[in-house]
Amino acid sequence: MAPESSVGSPADDPLQIDLPDDGRIHSHRRRVHLADTSPKGRVRLDALARMLQDVSDEDTTDAGFPPDEPWVVRRVDMGIESFPAFRDMVTVSTWCSGIGGRWAERRVRIEGDAGGRVEAAVLWVHLDASGRPARLPERFDSLYAPAARGRKVRARLHHAPAPEGASPTPFPLRKSDFDLMGHVNNAVSWIPVDDALGDDGALTPPIRVTLEHPGPIDRGDVPGVVVDAGVDGFDLWIIVDGAARSSAQVRRWGGRDQP
Is the pLDDT confidence value at 81 over 90? Predict the structure, then answer.
């Protein structure tokens, strides 16, 4: 298992990046609904992932980028200071916090009227119509570069492989888990992480969760889940044919004041 330490960016901490003074910021308001919550009423991790996904897609749609040049999630870094709860109204805001050759990082902030707060940084890879990584669209710099303030980001992944000889727990897929790309939607990968976190465990906010996607889960795949628990959190992998398709680290977090 990885060392028992806070999970952070190797170069800097994206969750410390605040709203820009200049540049594009896209926001919307929404309510935490029944289908978003755990049995104890807190918002689930997969529901938070959908919020990140929806505000990002809404932004690029409003910016006029074509739907046949999609974006896919490569890495998510999520810091949960406190969970929004059932029926809370939340404001979800996003802005560009870094740019690479074929990818860009979005910061997302979820603020609840009742005090819930989540900070996230999501690395999105831009694809062409054939599904291969492509250079960022025309007009991207003019729209998003001012908010990024010259910050560069890499698409490198950092999680360790699953322990050798681990016996995965089956993770059956449903037809509804697949999206327009023909792959399991990235929010689905958060479901086993939320199951491992639970409502009654000792690991409570503030916590930090990073989730990486080394590869897609396709139709016909038979995934399983491996969990490796430690003193200060746990690691988790979704495995297909011995290879990780998603991996997660969950750790205690000091909040926005420290990684």
Answer: yes
